[in-house]
Every structure is written in structure tokens, then in C-alpha cells.
Amino acid sequence: xxxxxxxxxxxxxxxxxxxxxxxxxxxxxxxxxxxxxxxxxxxxxxxxxxxxxxxxxxxxxxxxxxxxxxxxxxxxxxxxxxxxxxxxxxxxxxxxxxxxxxxxxxxxxxxxxxxxxxxxxxxxxxxxxxxxxxxxxxxxxxxxxxxxxxxxxxxxxxxxxxxxxxxxxxxxxxxxxxxxxxxxxxxxxxxxxxxxxxxxxxxxxxxxxxxxxxxxxxxxxxxxxxxxxxxxxxxxxxxxxxxxxxxxxxxxxxxxxxxxxxxxxxxxxxxxxxxxxxxxxxxxxxxxxxxxxxxxxxxxxxxxxxxxxxxxxxxxxxxxxxxxxxxxxxxxxxxxxxxxxxxxxxxxxxxxxxxxxxxxxxxxxxxxxxxxxxxxxxxxxxxxxxxxxxxxxxxxxxxxxxxxxxxxxxxxxxxxxxxxxxxxxxxxxxxxxxxxxxxxxxxxxxxxxxxxxxxxxxxxxxxxxxxxxxxxxxxxxxxxxxxxxx
Length: 486
Description:
By secondary structure, the protein is α/β, with parallel strands linked by helices.
């Protein structure tokens, strides 16, 4: 082969190697090839790693340039005002995602007008003080509603910043924020005069000082929840009632130090009360309920469960003064009799939900009166009402409420109820759930018959396991497995 031919072949092979090398060879091979090829010319050896990074950066900038700038297609189609309005319907997570799309979207998504209502319940324990402080700075006067329910890391410092920077907040939920103390309520009183709703449920460090502060600085307060704040006494409730006459909802579940005096003060100064929950306030007596009935005729939800010192006098007063009562919960009020519920049935025709759990003195007469006088009942609890029989259930099943509205009936621990009651309930076409735990005279056959008429109904019952028969033959007694283990 001639020298010229050999040079042509070498040149072609070198060209092919160059084409393949750019794609498939390692950096070490590429550098070795460049050293051999450019040994005579003394050319600088290129850094392919740096070249690749620069190329990627250049391409990314080209791809994102059109979207980041104001002349992006979506920004041409929609004006900023319309995009801002669309963002106002998004939740916190969606807004944060939109803020990462482009610079213009970042400005619009983080605009304070989009952050008027914030619920951080999904984040719960992950939310800490700095996050609340950042939100406070971003929202400022736009913030109206904030829920920190379950955010146990939130403390007084961040809440003080919130109160100072967000003076227009109207609805604040601090349920389960156990680090919150009276300092937070003092800050709210000082800066947030427009506060209307405050939930302090399970904020165990809250005392009467918080209620006194709120009464001084939050005259617009209409809803408050101090459930399980065990340090609250009648002194704090009285101060709150005097300073917040617009109260419509007062919830104090588990506050055992609240007495009749505190409730009477509420009735006197807060005549617009509509929702009252005194569950577990065992020191409440008849005079307190009488005061509520006399002064707060607009009440439609009343929970007196666990107020075991109350008598028929309370229910009779409610029957005479509160015709709009729709929900009545009196579980554990064991002194109520048929006479009290007869008075209610005559006057309170809007009753929809009644919890009579452990009202052990009532009989079928109560069901007869309710079936005639309360056509709107949807939810009825008769658990542990041991004097209720099939006859009472029969009257209930024939009532207007059973035919149209009754959806839940709880009969746990009613020992006199039999399968005949289930037969009567087949006419309750809207019935969705029946509780039959520990009803000893209810059988599986009766439940199957009920389900055959109401296929969508949920029946909750418990049947004890059958006692094994004694062993046949032999004098040795046969023990069950648990006895053998013991």
C-alpha cells in the first residue's frame, strides 16, 4: 500500500474515531486521543465535564426563559388580576407549588390577599414558630381566618408576632396547642380587637387571666371554646360575659370548676347565646338552666350531659322558654323522668337530635310523647334506658319522624328490647344505623329479617360466644383453653 493511500485510510479512521468518541468514550480516552492528535500543534486539551455542564445550563435557560418572563403564553392570555383571583381559591399547598413556577407567579401566589384563610391542620406537628412568623409577615392585615389545630409546637412567641402583624384576624383555632398560655390571649386582646371566634380547646395552661384579657380587648367575640381548660373558674367566665355581650356560642366541656353562678352570669349578659355546651360541668344546678331558658330564648343547641344534679325542673323550664331547641344532649342526667320529656314534646317541635343515654327513669311513655310531638327527630339515643320495651319502639316506628326523618337509633344495653322491636323498625325507611350492643334478647335471625327489609342499614350488635357443652363420658372435667392457661 502506498504512503498516500495509507494516509487516506488513517485519516478516515481518525475521523470515525472522533465521531464515536464524542458519544461513547470515557474522559480518560478522550484526553489521550486529543494528546495524540494535537501533540504537534500543542493545542489546549478541552474539559468535557465543564463543557457538558455549561451546555445543560444554557439549554435550561433557553427552555425557562419564555415561561419566566411576562410574555409567557399563559400570561398573555390571562391578565394578572384574573390569575390572582384564581389563586385566591387555592389551598396553602397549591399556592406554594404555584409560587415555584416562575417569578411572576411567585409574586402573585404569595400576595397577601390569597392568604386570608389558612388551615395548617394537615401539617400539624411539623409547623413551628418560624413558619407562623413568616406567614404573619406575608399576610399582614389580609389574614382573617387561621387554624393551627394540632400544631403542638406553636408557643407564645410566634403568636405574639401573629397578633402584632395580623390585627384583622377574626377566626383563630388553637385547638390542641398545649404550649399556649395566657400570654397569647393577652397579645390577642391588645392587638386583635376584631376577633370573633376563638378555639382554645385542650389548651390546658389557659387560666381565668386569659378570659379577663379577652373581655377587655375583644368586644366582638361571638364564639369561644374553652373545653378541657381545667384552670378556668366562674371568675373568668363572669369577666368574659360582662365584656363580650355578643357571645352566640359558649363551649366549656370538662370545665368542672364552672358553677351555676357563672352560667347565670352568662345568661344575664349574653342574651344572644344559641349554642351552649356544658358537658361534664357537674356543679351545674337547676337555677342555672332556668336562667338560660329565661334569658336565652334563641338557644337551639344545648348539651347538659354529665350534669347529674339536674332535675325535671330544668327541662320544664326549657320547654316553656326555648321553642327553637333542635339538639338536646342530657346523657347521664339520671334524675329526669317521663314528665320532663312530656313537657318538651308538647312545646319543642323542632327537636332533631336527642341523646338520652343513661336517663334510667324514662319509660315507654317518653317515646309515646316524642312520637306524637316531635316529627323532626333524626338522631335518638336510648342507650342504658333499661325500662324501654318493644311497645315504646312500636309507637316510635309509627310516628311521623320514623317514616320520614329517623336515621340513627341507639338501643345499647336495653335488656327488654326483643326481635319484635326490629320488626317494628322495618317501617322506618330512612333508618341508616341501629346500635344493639348488649341487647340480650336480640337474635341474629331478627337482624337478618331487618336487613332483608332495609338492605342498606348498618346494625351494630355483639353476641357472646356460645358456652361449650360439657364433655360426654368420664369423670374428668373438661376446661376451656383460657382456663388451662391460667
